[in-house]
């Protein structure tokens, strides 16, 4: 009799667990997000404070967008700047914040779907008139671009970027970090790079030494609610705190704040 009761209890709890799983699955379907996106969806208000007002993202957008608090920090560095070019604009996380403080923003993305999403999101924030959206390949467009500050947040190869202990610049997509930096420098030396938190910092510093003359550089750790999210590197005048930065032997200023 006791064994039978125990069996019945186990059966009932299994049924309950199955029902709970079904409800969770249904909830996910109603939210319209895949299991990969679920974790980022839970952070939606950190990504876009005005998420509920009509913000739209696709899968890559969910895991790549710069959280709003970090994007605001990037933009503050460019307050009053003339033209900022967001070379890999995605769903507009950065472009929107730049548009709030700069004269004009050029937002480029190779994926037409991303540009459509970024335009929609810029409308939600009421800044669409301050942004020129371009569908195109940054590397092809580069020779014809003119701007005061360049923002580079290229793909890192998806959320698996953190599987490796040290993320090297050659893992950046679609071209390695050195080539990307060289192309960018031909447009302006005032460059901001948004990079993985496990990026090889020595390699990053080398980018400034390899420039001629060496560029001032500031490396900043980015957190949201105390969670270490990414690293931002400011080069040239974008490293605006340069006046109080220690000078290296090369003559360039260098500050690391992580
Ligand atoms: P994450 O590490 O995938 O998220 O991305 P989280 O919540 O820190 O995950 P955890 O499990 O490690 O705690 C952190 C941040 O990096 C995201 O919010 C994006 O801003 C940025 N990011 C991530 N990826 C994969 C990319 C990318 O490919 N390109 C760019 N530009 N940014 C990315
Ligand atoms: N900072 C953005 C996220 C950028 S994710 C935000 O906050 O929303 C990187 C983006 O680079 C992706 O949207 C991808 O479509 C785009 N991309 C990849 N290769 C590109 C290229 N050659 N030129 C321009 N954009 C490219």
UniProtKB/TrEMBL annotation:
GO MF annotation terms? RNA cap trimethylguanosine synthase activity
Which Pfam families does the protein's record reference? Methyltransf_15
Q: Which reaction does it catalyse?
A: a 5'-end (N(7)-methyl 5'-triphosphoguanosine)-ribonucleoside in snoRNA + S-adenosyl-L-methionine = a 5'-end (N(2),N(7)-dimethyl 5'-triphosphoguanosine)-ribonucleoside in snoRNA + S-adenosyl-L-homocysteine + H(+); a 5'-end (N(7)-methyl 5'-triphosphoguanosine)-ribonucleoside in snRNA + S-adenosyl-L-methionine = a 5'-end (N(2),N(7)-dimethyl 5'-triphosphoguanosine)-ribonucleoside in snRNA + S-adenosyl-L-homocysteine + H(+); a 5'-end (N(2),N(7)-dimethyl 5'-triphosphoguanosine)-ribonucleoside in snoRNA + S-adenosyl-L-methionine = a 5'-end (N(2),N(2),N(7)-trimethyl 5'-triphosphoguanosine)-ribonucleoside in snoRNA + S-adenosyl-L-homocysteine + H(+); a 5'-end (N(2),N(7)-dimethyl 5'-triphosphoguanosine)-ribonucleoside in snRNA + S-adenosyl-L-methionine = a 5'-end (N(2),N(2),N(7)-trimethyl 5'-triphosphoguanosine)-ribonucleoside in snRNA + S-adenosyl-L-homocysteine + H(+)
Gene Ontology cellular component list: Cajal body; cytoplasm; nucleolus
- So what family is this one in? Belongs to the methyltransferase superfamily. Trimethylguanosine synthase family.
Q: What is this protein called?
A: Trimethylguanosine synthase
Q: Its gene?
A: LOC113726675
């Amino acid at each position: 009799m006791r064994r039978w009761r125990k069996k019945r209890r186990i059966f009932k709890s299994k049924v309950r667990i199955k029902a709970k799983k079904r409800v969770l699955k249904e909830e996910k379907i109603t939210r319209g997000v895949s299991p990969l996106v679920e974790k980022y969806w839970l952070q939606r208000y950190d990504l876009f404070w005005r998420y509920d007002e009509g913000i739209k993202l696709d899968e890559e957008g969910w895991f790549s967008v710069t959280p709003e608090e970090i994007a605001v920090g990037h933009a503050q560095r460019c307050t009053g700047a003339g033209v900022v070019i967001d070379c890999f604009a995605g769903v507009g996380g950065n472009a929107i914040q730049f548009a709030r403080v700069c004269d004009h923003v050029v937002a480029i993305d190779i994926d037409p779907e991303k540009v459509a999403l970024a335009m929609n999101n810029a409308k939600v924030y009421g800044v669409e008139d301050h942004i020129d959206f371009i569908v195109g390949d940054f590397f092809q467009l580069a020779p014809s671009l003119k701007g005061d500050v360049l923002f580079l947040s290229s793909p890192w190869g998806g959320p698996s970027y953190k599987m490796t202990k040290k993320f090297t610049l050659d893992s950046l997509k679609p071209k390695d970090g050195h080539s990307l930096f060289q192309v960018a420098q031909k447009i302006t030396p005032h460059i901001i790079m948004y990079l993985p938190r496990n990026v090889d910092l020595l390699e990053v510093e080398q980018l400034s030494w390899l420039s001629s003359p060496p560029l001032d550089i500031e490396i900043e750790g980015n957190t949201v609610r105390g969670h270490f999210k990414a690293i931002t590197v400011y080069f040239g005048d974008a490293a605006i705190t340069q006046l109080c930065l220690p000078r290296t032997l090369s003559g360039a200023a260098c500050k690391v704040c992580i």
